[in-house]
Write a structure and sequence with these properties.
This protein is of the alpha/beta class. The protein contains 5 helices and 7 strands, in the order H-H-E-H-E-H-E-E-H-E-E-E. 24% of the residues lie in helices and 18% in strands. The longest helix has 14 residues.
Length: 215
Protein backbone atom coordinates (compact mmCIF):
# COMPACT_ATOMS: atom_id res chain seq x y z
CA UNK A 1 0.00 0.00 0.00
CA UNK A 2 1.54 3.31 -1.06
CA UNK A 3 2.33 5.84 1.67
CA UNK A 4 0.40 9.10 1.61
CA UNK A 5 2.39 11.89 0.06
CA UNK A 6 3.86 14.42 2.45
CA UNK A 7 3.07 18.05 1.79
CA UNK A 8 6.07 19.68 0.21
CA UNK A 9 7.84 22.57 1.91
CA UNK A 10 7.10 24.67 -1.12
CA UNK A 11 3.35 24.11 -0.76
CA UNK A 12 3.42 24.73 2.97
CA UNK A 13 5.17 28.06 2.53
CA UNK A 14 3.20 29.23 -0.50
CA UNK A 15 0.85 31.38 1.58
CA UNK A 16 2.87 32.90 4.41
CA UNK A 17 0.90 34.27 7.31
CA UNK A 18 1.56 37.81 8.53
CA UNK A 19 1.67 37.05 12.24
CA UNK A 20 1.58 40.73 13.19
CA UNK A 21 -1.50 41.41 11.07
CA UNK A 22 -3.25 38.47 12.71
CA UNK A 23 -2.57 39.69 16.24
CA UNK A 24 -3.71 42.72 18.22
CA UNK A 25 -1.45 45.78 18.09
CA UNK A 26 0.48 46.47 21.27
CA UNK A 27 1.58 49.69 22.90
CA UNK A 28 5.35 49.81 22.52
CA UNK A 29 6.59 52.43 24.96
CA UNK A 30 5.70 54.52 27.98
CA UNK A 31 3.42 53.89 30.95
CA UNK A 32 1.10 51.52 29.02
CA UNK A 33 3.91 49.56 27.39
CA UNK A 34 2.96 45.99 26.49
CA UNK A 35 -0.80 46.48 26.64
CA UNK A 36 -2.71 45.02 23.69
CA UNK A 37 -5.52 46.79 21.83
CA UNK A 38 -8.64 44.98 20.59
CA UNK A 39 -8.44 44.30 16.85
CA UNK A 40 -10.39 42.05 14.48
CA UNK A 41 -8.05 40.78 11.72
CA UNK A 42 -9.57 41.26 8.29
CA UNK A 43 -11.95 43.90 9.61
CA UNK A 44 -12.28 47.51 8.57
CA UNK A 45 -9.20 48.81 10.39
CA UNK A 46 -5.55 48.76 9.27
CA UNK A 47 -3.38 49.40 12.32
CA UNK A 48 0.06 50.84 11.63
CA UNK A 49 2.66 48.08 11.90
CA UNK A 50 4.31 47.95 15.32
CA UNK A 51 7.79 48.47 13.87
CA UNK A 52 6.60 51.47 11.84
CA UNK A 53 4.94 52.98 14.91
CA UNK A 54 8.07 52.43 16.97
CA UNK A 55 10.19 54.19 14.35
CA UNK A 56 7.67 57.02 14.15
CA UNK A 57 7.79 57.72 17.87
CA UNK A 58 11.58 57.53 17.80
CA UNK A 59 11.46 60.33 15.23
CA UNK A 60 8.98 62.37 17.28
CA UNK A 61 10.94 61.86 20.49
CA UNK A 62 10.09 64.04 23.48
CA UNK A 63 7.94 66.35 21.33
CA UNK A 64 4.96 64.11 22.20
CA UNK A 65 4.95 65.26 25.83
CA UNK A 66 2.17 67.63 26.82
CA UNK A 67 0.57 67.69 23.37
CA UNK A 68 -3.01 67.16 22.29
CA UNK A 69 -2.78 64.04 20.12
CA UNK A 70 -5.29 64.08 17.26
CA UNK A 71 -5.72 60.57 15.84
CA UNK A 72 -7.63 60.91 12.57
CA UNK A 73 -8.96 57.67 11.02
CA UNK A 74 -8.34 56.24 14.50
CA UNK A 75 -9.36 52.60 14.01
CA UNK A 76 -7.90 50.68 16.95
CA UNK A 77 -6.49 53.93 18.35
CA UNK A 78 -2.95 52.52 18.30
CA UNK A 79 -1.39 55.89 17.46
CA UNK A 80 -3.41 57.90 19.96
CA UNK A 81 -2.98 55.44 22.83
CA UNK A 82 0.74 55.20 22.08
CA UNK A 83 0.95 58.99 22.29
CA UNK A 84 -0.91 59.00 25.62
CA UNK A 85 1.39 56.28 26.93
CA UNK A 86 4.42 58.40 26.03
CA UNK A 87 3.24 61.62 27.64
CA UNK A 88 0.58 63.33 25.51
CA UNK A 89 -1.79 65.24 27.78
CA UNK A 90 -4.97 64.24 25.93
CA UNK A 91 -6.10 62.58 22.71
CA UNK A 92 -8.94 63.21 20.31
CA UNK A 93 -9.86 60.06 18.37
CA UNK A 94 -11.81 60.65 15.15
CA UNK A 95 -13.51 57.54 13.74
CA UNK A 96 -16.36 57.35 11.23
CA UNK A 97 -17.42 53.75 12.06
CA UNK A 98 -19.68 54.06 15.10
CA UNK A 99 -19.11 50.52 16.49
CA UNK A 100 -15.35 51.14 16.26
CA UNK A 101 -15.81 54.48 18.04
CA UNK A 102 -17.64 52.64 20.83
CA UNK A 103 -14.75 50.14 20.99
CA UNK A 104 -12.31 53.04 21.39
CA UNK A 105 -14.24 54.26 24.43
CA UNK A 106 -14.16 50.77 25.94
CA UNK A 107 -10.42 50.49 25.32
CA UNK A 108 -9.83 53.86 26.97
CA UNK A 109 -11.69 52.67 30.07
CA UNK A 110 -9.80 49.36 30.14
CA UNK A 111 -6.47 51.20 29.89
CA UNK A 112 -7.47 53.65 32.62
CA UNK A 113 -7.14 56.74 30.39
CA UNK A 114 -10.79 57.53 29.67
CA UNK A 115 -10.46 60.93 31.37
CA UNK A 116 -7.80 61.88 28.80
CA UNK A 117 -9.70 60.67 25.73
CA UNK A 118 -12.28 62.38 23.53
CA UNK A 119 -13.82 60.10 20.88
CA UNK A 120 -15.42 61.99 17.96
CA UNK A 121 -17.61 59.74 15.77
CA UNK A 122 -18.07 60.99 12.21
CA UNK A 123 -16.38 61.42 8.84
CA UNK A 124 -13.21 63.52 9.21
CA UNK A 125 -13.24 64.19 5.46
CA UNK A 126 -16.08 66.61 6.26
CA UNK A 127 -14.00 68.59 8.76
CA UNK A 128 -12.75 71.14 6.19
CA UNK A 129 -16.37 72.27 5.66
CA UNK A 130 -16.95 72.90 9.34
CA UNK A 131 -13.94 72.36 11.54
CA UNK A 132 -14.82 71.06 15.02
CA UNK A 133 -13.83 72.90 18.17
CA UNK A 134 -10.60 71.43 19.54
CA UNK A 135 -8.48 72.74 22.42
CA UNK A 136 -5.67 75.03 21.31
CA UNK A 137 -3.94 75.58 24.66
CA UNK A 138 -1.20 73.07 23.78
CA UNK A 139 0.52 72.05 20.52
CA UNK A 140 -1.15 69.27 18.54
CA UNK A 141 0.39 65.99 17.43
CA UNK A 142 -1.72 65.07 14.42
CA UNK A 143 -1.79 61.58 12.90
CA UNK A 144 -3.27 61.10 9.42
CA UNK A 145 -3.27 57.36 8.74
CA UNK A 146 -6.22 56.53 6.46
CA UNK A 147 -6.78 53.54 4.17
CA UNK A 148 -3.99 53.78 1.63
CA UNK A 149 -6.45 53.66 -1.26
CA UNK A 150 -7.26 57.29 -0.47
CA UNK A 151 -3.76 58.34 -1.54
CA UNK A 152 -4.34 57.21 -5.14
CA UNK A 153 -4.88 60.21 -7.40
CA UNK A 154 -7.74 58.32 -9.04
CA UNK A 155 -9.61 57.87 -5.75
CA UNK A 156 -12.46 60.39 -5.34
CA UNK A 157 -11.41 60.91 -1.70
CA UNK A 158 -7.87 61.97 -2.62
CA UNK A 159 -8.66 65.69 -2.92
CA UNK A 160 -10.75 65.54 0.27
CA UNK A 161 -7.83 63.98 2.15
CA UNK A 162 -5.42 66.73 1.07
CA UNK A 163 -8.04 69.35 1.97
CA UNK A 164 -8.24 67.75 5.44
CA UNK A 165 -4.48 68.02 5.93
CA UNK A 166 -4.63 71.68 4.88
CA UNK A 167 -7.55 72.40 7.23
CA UNK A 168 -5.92 70.75 10.24
CA UNK A 169 -2.68 72.63 9.61
CA UNK A 170 -4.59 75.89 9.48
CA UNK A 171 -6.44 75.21 12.74
CA UNK A 172 -3.51 73.86 14.77
CA UNK A 173 -1.74 76.07 17.31
CA UNK A 174 1.95 77.02 16.88
CA UNK A 175 4.44 74.27 17.65
CA UNK A 176 2.25 71.47 16.31
CA UNK A 177 3.59 68.34 14.59
CA UNK A 178 1.90 66.48 11.72
CA UNK A 179 2.35 62.90 10.55
CA UNK A 180 0.94 61.40 7.35
CA UNK A 181 1.36 57.66 6.85
CA UNK A 182 1.09 56.57 3.22
CA UNK A 183 2.37 53.88 0.90
CA UNK A 184 5.27 54.25 -1.50
CA UNK A 185 2.96 55.10 -4.42
CA UNK A 186 1.80 58.37 -2.83
CA UNK A 187 3.18 61.54 -4.42
CA UNK A 188 4.35 63.62 -1.46
CA UNK A 189 4.61 66.66 -3.76
CA UNK A 190 0.83 66.96 -3.47
CA UNK A 191 1.03 67.73 0.27
CA UNK A 192 0.46 71.39 1.20
CA UNK A 193 3.80 73.23 1.44
CA UNK A 194 5.40 70.00 0.23
CA UNK A 195 9.03 71.13 0.59
CA UNK A 196 8.61 71.52 4.37
CA UNK A 197 7.81 67.84 4.95
CA UNK A 198 10.40 65.20 5.86
CA UNK A 199 9.79 61.76 4.34
CA UNK A 200 11.07 58.49 5.81
CA UNK A 201 10.54 55.13 4.14
CA UNK A 202 9.85 52.44 6.73
CA UNK A 203 8.45 49.54 4.67
CA UNK A 204 5.71 48.91 3.98
CA UNK A 205 4.93 52.55 4.82
CA UNK A 206 6.36 55.96 4.08
CA UNK A 207 6.07 58.49 6.90
CA UNK A 208 5.77 62.17 6.06
CA UNK A 209 6.46 64.49 9.00
CA UNK A 210 6.00 68.22 9.38
CA UNK A 211 7.87 69.43 12.43
CA UNK A 212 7.23 72.75 14.17
CA UNK A 213 8.98 75.71 12.61
CA UNK A 214 11.10 78.14 14.59
CA UNK A 215 9.22 80.08 17.26
Amino acid sequence: MPRPARPSKRTASAAPVDAEAASSPRIIGGELRGRRLPHLPGGGTRPMKDRVRESLFDLIGTAVRGTLAVDLFAGTGALGFEALSRGAARCVFAERHFPTADALRRTARELGVADRCDVRPGDVLLWPRRFPALPTDAPWLVFVSPPWAMFAATDPRHAQLLALVTAVRGAAPPGSTFVVEADAAFDAATLPDAAAWESRAIPPAVLHLLHPGPA
